[in-house]
């Protein structure tokens, strides 16, 4: 397996994964509609790996284009990142999310099946667990009904892939349930590029430290956690990217159909306040923040049981929280 179609390959996780693919001897073929990414990210990827990459500008719902790419590039596997991901926006514009996230996946599945390519890595999320009954949460935990249309699209997409696997005994797929990706590439050439005001914590922190935002609000300090703020499993995006290589290797080594869901997290839970402290310590930047009300739809605490990723894929996170925050800050400084 060599040529990997990477939908959303210029996005935050996609771009880091393209770098790791090339470092591991794969050839990423990027398909991205630039709806939440910039064309110059391609140049940055090329600068990091010192070689050119193939890029198609387009939408993964465009089956004609997908067929063209499969024919031109002899695609052996797919990593499907392309999707909308803003939780709040999805509440206001649910159809946009269902159309794009589900339509994109079904187009990819239909074309890949027709083209006899049955190796799929799907970007899922720990959002499928909702508020877990047990922590750390493992893959056998019940799938809850999601708090947002965004979360619902992840649950539905997982289900679609599972149903296809039952119908097509040769189809090989892996559902990676990401926890909270943060950080940036060590070269500071690629990183997260939030559209407008960031809703995710770490970009909001780095923009506040950079003086773009006046102050960070910690959403809730009365949760039942050690300091009252929410607990999350923050994972460096490079570690996360490397999990995709292990997932592809797992699929390659499988001789029959498979569909596995795997948590991709560090296994450690940190509170929002701990993260802020850690940011101040590792970067030497003082952060202006206040304690505020809870944000609707937030889960009190969620962090991964990371055993399955280690056992099944031979993957575990390696980069510390401090390094992740320092990398996020170094990237912010280049913007
Ligand atoms: C959410 C989604 C997750 C999705 C991710 C991608 C849910 C439950 N989670 O993660 O599935 O993959 O977005 O965008 O749908 N916080 C503050 N102040 C801020 C911003 C955030 O205190 O200004 C807090 C939040 O309340 C939360 C933590 O920081 O406790 C992390 O928030 P965020 O980065 O938005 O990620 P999640 O909500 O965990």
Short description:
This protein is of the alpha/beta class and 335 residues long. The chain has helices at 12-23, 40-49, 63-73, 87-92, 94-114, 149-167, 201-209, 237-253, 272-283, 307-313, 321-334, and strands at 3-7, 27-32, 54-57, 77-80, 119-125, 172-178, 180-182, 216-219, 231-232, 234-236, 258-264, 270-271, 289-292.
Walkthrough of the structure:
By secondary structure, the protein is of the alpha/beta class. It has a domain at 3-183 and 234-265 and 303-319: NAD(P)-binding Rossmann-like Domain (Rossmann fold, 3-Layer(aba) Sandwich). Helices cover 41% and strands 17% of the residues. The protein is built from 11 helices and 13 strands. It has helices at 12-23, 40-49, 63-73, 87-92, 94-114, 149-167, 201-209, 237-253, 272-283, 307-313, 321-334, and strands at residues 3-7, 27-32, 54-57, 77-80, 119-125, 172-178, 180-182, 216-219, 231-232, 234-236, 258-264, 270-271, 289-292. The strands form 4 sheets. It has a 7-stranded parallel β-sheet, sandwiched between helices. Strands 7-10 form a two-stranded parallel ribbon. It has a two-stranded parallel ribbon with strand order 8-13. α3 runs parallel beside α5, α7 (201-209) packs across α11 (321-334) and α9 (272-283) crosses α11. The protein is globular. The protein starts with a strand and ends with a helix. The mean pLDDT is 97.
How do the helices and strands line up, and which of them pair or pack?
Blueprint: E1 3-7, H1 12-23, E2 27-32, H2 40-49, E3 54-57, H3 63-73, E4 77-80, H4 87-92, H5 94-114, E5 119-125, H6 149-167, E6 172-178, E7 180-182, H7 201-209, E8 216-219, E9 231-232, E10 234-236, H8 237-253, E11 258-264, E12 270-271, H9 272-283, E13 289-292, H10 307-313, H11 321-334
Parallel strand pairs: 1-2, 1-4, 2-3, 4-5, 5-6, 6-11, 7-10, 8-13
Antiparallel strand pairs: 9-12
């Amino acid at each position: 397996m060599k040529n990997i179609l990477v939908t959303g390959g210029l996005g935050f996780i996609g771009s880091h994964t393209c770098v790791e693919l090339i470092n591991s001897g794969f050839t990423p073929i990027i398909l991205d509609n630039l709806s939440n990414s910039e064309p110059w990210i391609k140049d940055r990827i090329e600068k990091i790996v010192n070689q050119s990459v193939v890029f198609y500008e387009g939408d993964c719902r465009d089956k004609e284009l997908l067929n063209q790419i499969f024919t031109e590039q002899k695609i052996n596997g797919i990593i499907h990142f392309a999707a909308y991901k803003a939780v709040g926006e999805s509440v206001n514009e649910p159809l946009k999310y269902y159309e794009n996230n589900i339509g994109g996946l079904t187009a990819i599945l239909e074309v890949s099946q027709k083209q006899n390519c049955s190796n799929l890595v799907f970007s899922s999320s720990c959002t499928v667990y909702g508020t877990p009954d047990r922590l750390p949460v493992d893959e056998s935990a019940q799938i809850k009904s999601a708090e947002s249309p965004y979360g619902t699209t992840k649950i539905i997409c997982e289900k679609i892939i599972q149903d296809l696997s039952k119908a097509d005994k040769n189809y090989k797929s892996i559902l990676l349930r990401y926890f909270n990706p943060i950080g940036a590439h060590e070269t500071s050439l690629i990183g997260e590029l939030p559209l407008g005001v960031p809703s995710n914590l770490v970009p909001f922190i780095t923009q506040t430290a950079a003086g773009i935002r006046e102050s960070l609000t910690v959403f809730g300090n009365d949760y039942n956690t050690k300091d009252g703020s929410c607990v999350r499993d923050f994972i460096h995006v490079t570690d996360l990217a490397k999990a995709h290589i292990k997932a592809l290797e797992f699929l390659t080594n499988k001789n029959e159909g498979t569909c596995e869901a795997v948590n991709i997290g560090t296994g450690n839970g940190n509170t929002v306040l701990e993260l802020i402290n850690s940011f101040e310590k590792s970067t030497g930047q003082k952060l202006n923040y206040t304690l505020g009300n809870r944000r609707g739809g937030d889960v009190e605490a969620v962090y991964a049981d990371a055993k399955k990723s280690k056992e099944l894929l031979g993957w575990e996170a390696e980069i510390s929280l401090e390094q992740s925050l320092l990398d996020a800050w170094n990237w912010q400084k280049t913007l």
